Amino acid sequence: MKILLVRLREIGDVVFTTPAVHALRSHFPGARLTYLVEPAAAPVVAHNEHIDELLTVPRTRGVAGFAADVALGRRLRARHFDLAIDFHGGPRASLLTWLSGAARRIGYDVPGRAWMYTDRVARPRELRRRHSVENQWDLLTPLGIAAPDRAASPVEMRVDPAAAASVDARLRAAGLTHEHQLIVMHVSAGNPFRRWPLDHFVAVARTLAASDARRRVIVTSGPSERDAAAQVIRASGAPAIGELSLAELRALVDRASLYIGGDSGPLHIAATSRVPIVALFGPTLPERSAPWRDPRIASAAVDVGALPCRPCDQRVCAPGDFRCLTTIAPELVVDAAERLLGPTVPD
Fold first, then answer.
1. What confidence tens digit (pLDDT) does each residue in 134-149 have?
2. Number of structural domains the chain divides into
3. Residue 345 predicted with pLDDT over 60
4. Do 193 and 121 belong to one domain?
5. Which range marks the domain in which residue 35 is found?
6. Which residues are paired to 302 by β-bridges?
7. Within a 13 Å sphere around the CA of 181, how many CA atoms are in the beta-carbon half?
8. What ranges in the chain are assigned the alpha helix state H?
9. pLDDT at position 344 over 70
10. Residue 148 gets which letter from DSSP?
11. In a 3-state reduction of DSSP, which class is residue 317?
12. Domain identity same for 180 and 76
């Protein structure tokens, strides 16, 4: 049996499909699983033991992009897939799923595109208090696969040995050893709705480092936020280890005692480890995107509570000041971090 999985766009959303990938492997142990992703999210599943083949498709636009997708569709059709599952539901993903010519095609019942699938699964348009892992797992219900369990079906991202070696070398060069207690603090986010103020990050880094002589806060970011990360590093005195790839970030988290960050792809990469997490939620809800893993692994969600505009679709900030995130006080994050880190060692 040949199965095609399609999940384009965001890193975190690809992480959220990994429990379903594991379930498909268990349900169809002899099947050949091919996963189609965009390059930015490919490292998430590059070493996934349940996937036989990884195909990457660049994000393109215009007539040339459409022609490239049609050509890719022809190549997929030539593979003669028995089953295709579109975990995305966007116009491009649904087109590629349909062009694959798979005998059975499962996707969301989206107006205008539902006809491209043989099996359609309802997807309410409102922002629900339901985890994204469960929303994507819904696509497995036509196959008779039971509902997911966090302990048995956590999100997954394997550590790349080469990335782990690179991280070890960077830490040594920065004078960091296994005697230090590392805290990874990610300051990046995909849009302004998820950006906590930089001075808040600086306050958290300073406070946590000052309360225990062993602690070192490692500040990380995505490429678009490298200047912001540099500002936090300079202002807090945190050690600098350079810009990291997704694979290196995953390896770094395994060396850490705690991860702190907002609701973005790196948070969900951190969730694939067993490291405690302090997650900051602004326009999104913990019920939808908190770390999906064994509940016995310590995690803390920090938010401002109920607001009339929360959650939102992150297109327009109704109050105009992003208050759902900017009003989260640094003290709340520090308190959550200290609870998860345990006893301190003074200077």
1. 999 999 999 999 999 9
2. 2
3. no
4. no
5. 2-143
6. 280
7. 20
8. 11-27, 42-45, 62-78, 91-99, 132-137, 161-173, 198-210, 226-236, 246-255, 265-270, 286-289, 323-326, 330-341
9. no
10. P
11. coil
12. no
